[in-house]
Design goal:
Cofactor: heme
Keywords: Heme, Iron, Metal-binding, Monooxygenase, Oxidoreductase
Strand content: 5-15%
Pfam family, one: p450
InterPro entries: Cyt_P450, Cyt_P450_CS, Cyt_P450_E_grp-I, Cyt_P450_sf
Protein name: Cytochrome P450
Strand order of the largest sheet: 1-4
Length: 368
Amino acid sequence: MNVPNGGIIFSEGEQWAEQRKFAHSTLRQFVQIADLTNIDINWPVQLCVANVVHEILFGFHNSYTDCERIRYFQAYPWIRFIPVIGWWGYGELRAIAVDLLSYVGEQIENGKKDLNLDQPPDTFVSAYLQDSVHRNGEKKLDKYNQEANLMNVVTDFWLAGMETAASTIRWGLLLITAHPDVQRRMIEELNENIGDRRITMADRQVLPYCLATIHEIQRVANVVTFNVFHKTTRQTTIGGFTIPKGTTVLPQITSVLSSEKYFEKAEQFLPERFLDTSQTPPILKKESLERLVPFSMGKRQCAGEPIGRAELFLVITRIVQHYVLSPSDERCPPDLEPIFGILQTPRPFKWKLEKRISVNEMNNSTIL
């Protein structure tokens, strides 16, 4: 789909992320009402990421105090991937699935009503609808091919994109809390190069340790345990076995991310593994980055990778810029054993957040 370079999703991922301010208001409202000595950051992070995706798809977002519908839909976000049950499960699960599809359909209909073929698209839905019209050669929608697929694409993006990013951010905050030395080095780098000003994606150049930490978070978290199916395009041989053309294969990213061959001391959380410290300032190691494949690989790798990378960098660095993270109860350090499922998610945890700058200063800046 050919879309212009501008607007929200239709700009480059970095340009888009730096334009967005709504996620800041989500976390700002949260910290104003929450007890910062005993805080469960799970839902604020979930809503922050949900609003990023929601704004891209539909062009609007939900406030922290008006988000019950989002919370409801995310009660069982992965139920449709379970064989047989899928979207058409029983009882409450079926009701959530039906309501979600109805909600997505409603937003698509709103997009059709607001569609202006003479203006550049400003949401994913409007871009998709415009593309359908252009492919059809007339000013009408190709309902069978394009519109039918749009519902599935939007639903995939809306659910899968939110849960994976939110889980990775929660893992990041947990790992940073569990490793105070890493948090200290991030704070020192932020103090030296950023201070109180708003962090942008361009700051990756001056925040190599923070960026290396986020790469290591993705490696250790390894959130997506069930990867997308691929097919071989030609016959090949692996480990002495012949794999015919057209064979369905399932990449095991875990075998790469946790491999001692590619990542020495793979069981340890070591952001510096991604840094070439022989350079001043340190730079990221190209060979290590090539082995980091949390978004899968090949032509079926995650389509939302640019947005996902922007979310992780901006949200995590912005939180560390503003707060010192520690356990709410010093006797209860972070439990880094994951909850296994289709996603590998962190266990519930309560934080103590100590402000590093004032709320007034935060009001004049942004998370995204």
